[in-house]
Amino acid sequence: MATSKNTGLTLTLVFFVMATVFSAVVAIVMYQRVQDNVAQNTKDKTEAQQNATLAKEAQQDVNVLKDLLGKPGLQSVGDPNSEPDDQTVFWAVRQDIEKFAGDEQEKTVGSTLQKMHTRITELEQHLAERNKAFDDLQEKFSMLDQTQGELNKQIDDAKELAEREKQEALENHQTQLAAKDATIQDKQTEVNTITGQLDEAIRNYEDYKEQTDERLSDQKNLIRRLSKELADIKNLDWEVEDGVITWTSNDKKTVWINLGSSDHLPKLMSFSVYRKQHSGIARTESDIKGSIEITRILGPHRAEARVTNSDIYLPITEGDPIYTPLWNPGSREKMAIVGFIDLDKDGRDDRQRLREIIAASGAQVVAEILDDGSTLPADADFSKLITSDVKFLIQGDMPDPSLASLPAEKAAIQRILSHYKNMEDAALDNGVRILDLSKFLNFIGYRNERRLYRPGDNVGYRLKNGSRSASVDETIRRLGPRTQRQSGQNAGLYDRNRALRRRFSTGQTSKKYSGGGSGSR
């Protein structure tokens, strides 16, 4: 029992001693931490006081710098990398530099002032040089002023001497003038007499000239009218054949002609075929028996053509002459166009197709009057364009002013008729043949081929279509042997009863010029 009590006391004592030692250690550690905190606080207070002193000194420096820059009222210094703000010292000073320094501004105030000082020094030096030059000019001006005074005195003396001499000369002149006045009076009487005679002669000449001009105008109109009537009555043979048929195959609708590569014959050229016993090439349509179109060039003077139109009662045979007014070896035929052009009588404008037919044959259109009354080329001078070199003036349907209902249509028709008068006068003066469109188409062997559209058929028309305006003498680009072909029209000529069906111009205008019709534009 006694042993157990001693053991408990021993354990208690040991625990107490260990607790005391642990408390002592904890107390020592806590005391050390307190001492360290006190020392750190003391150090922080000292640094805070030092920082406060430095901040105060820095603020004083900033205030001094603000006063120096003239911005004492701005609180914030500003940041160059921030958005511009004229309420900060940095951006306010930057604005002053940009505003007052101009081309001399730099990135800093010091460099800007230095550059401005350099510029001011240069300007002061330049001003000093200008002042020196001004002083030199002032000195020269004083010398010139003195010289001017001397010259003025000399001028005054010269004026006085000249005035005396003038007075003496005037007195002498008055004496001579009085003598000449008498002579002039006598001459004036003679001049008045001669002037009266001259005026009477001029009046007589003007009367004679007016009568002569009227007679010349009447005779010119008479000659034109008689020439036109004579051409209509006799229809003189003034063209020659281009070639002849050398071989025919009526079953295959194929012929050969005596023209080829040496004649510069183009493919797809169309020719009218004439009777052997014709009354003259391009004289009358009754001599035309058919038309052909060149398909192959076989040699220097040989080519193959397909028959595009013929009469079974008057077949094409060997020796038949061929002709087209659009082609002439070694030269380029010239044409002019006027009137509404309707090749297939469907009421639509085919002017562009006619241009292409002419251009594809190697000919050219030198002048046109369009359906709106304008001309190609613009403001054309027909007296210079319609010369003796022009072969045909092709005339389509001419408009009738009485059929127009709108003022714009009437104005367009008046322009067309006015231009046509000038074109016709030029043609008559230069011997240019005025040819109706249907006759022209027959002479060139044109035949209208109606085209049928089939689904899936991607082959387009062989001639460009449409009514867009084109320049005079537009060149047609050849894309291949069958990308461009002339369609044809026989105008009812090639049938058994063609003698009964010859068509003449009725003078009726196309529906294009009617007021509000389906063909009006």
Question: Any descriptors?
Answer:
7 helices; 521 residues; single chain; 11 strands; alpha+beta
Description:
Helices cover 48% and strands 12% of the residues. With 521 residues, it is of the alpha+beta class. A hairpin with a 5-residue loop joins strand 8 (364-369) and strand 9. The relative contact order is 0.07.
* Unreliable spans: 450-521
Mean pLDDT rating: 77
Spatial arrangement of strands, main beta sheet: 1-2-5-4-3-6
Distance between the termini: 144 Å
- The radius of gyration is 56 Å
Number of strands: 11
Portion in beta strands: 5-15%
**Shape, please?**
flat
Helices, by number, come to: 7
Q: What is the N-to-C succession of helices and strands? A: HHHEEEEEEEHEEHEHEH
Largest sheet report: 6 strands, antiparallel, barrel
Helix percent reads: 40-55%
**Protein structure class:** alpha+beta
Question: What does this entry show, briefly?
Answer:
The protein is of the alpha+beta class and 521 residues long.
Question: What's the arrangement of secondary structure elements?
Answer:
Layout: H1 2-69, H2 89-101, H3 109-234, E1 243-249, E2 254-257, E3 270-274, E4 288-299, E5 302-309, E6 321-323, E7 334-338, H4 351-360, E8 364-369, E9 375-376, H5 382-385, E10 390-395, H6 407-429, E11 433-436, H7 437-443
Parallel strand pairs: 7-8, 7-10, 10-11
Antiparallel strand pairs: 1-2, 1-6, 2-5, 3-4, 3-6, 4-5, 8-9
